[in-house]
Amino acid sequence: MSSNGPQSSVVPAHRRRGRSRNSLAIQLSAFALTFILIALLVVTSSRAAFVAQNDNSTNTVTSAAIALSDNDTSTAMFNNVTNMVPGTTYERCIDVTYTGTVDPTAVILYANGTPTGTLAPYLDLTVQVGADTPAAFRDCTGFVSSGTVYSGTLGTFASTRTSYANGVTTWDPIGSPETRTFRFVLTVQDTTAAAGLNTTFGFSWETRTS
Asked: In angstroms, rounded to a whole number, what is the distance separating the alpha carbons of residues 173 and 132?
């Protein structure tokens, strides 16, 4: 055989096998990379499915409303009552109204401060409560008592019923508005010790949230 003849293009078998293995390795690597990318996409998609949102809108709160009012128009019930004599009763009526947005505790009546003067120990006081009476302030026309909340002297009431803690229970409102009429009856005792004396005094009503 001549050494100058055409060169053979036949690739040795071991080289072909090497290239085939390399091509297979590259293909496998690409396939593995593709699989990894797909897996990453799946994991990312799965995480997105676990996202939770909370849209918290503006909060609004209000406090309870609770109030007592009366119809005295800033005038005393026993205003300038003079020359009281034994055996004569002096009565006055007043409306007290609860207004509020909650169910309160019972309405308590107690003395508004310490009476001045020296007549209080000789004044007999009776306090009654009844349903709302349509009469005007001080006028007891049509009043019907549903119970007596106090009976004794004005002096004892003022010294023992001094606050919400030790006042007398009158009524427990269950609605709003709700009104009760109170009748206060004063009688001067028939004793010479009461002659020529005077006193000034007041009353308070109070209720609270339960």
From this structure: 13
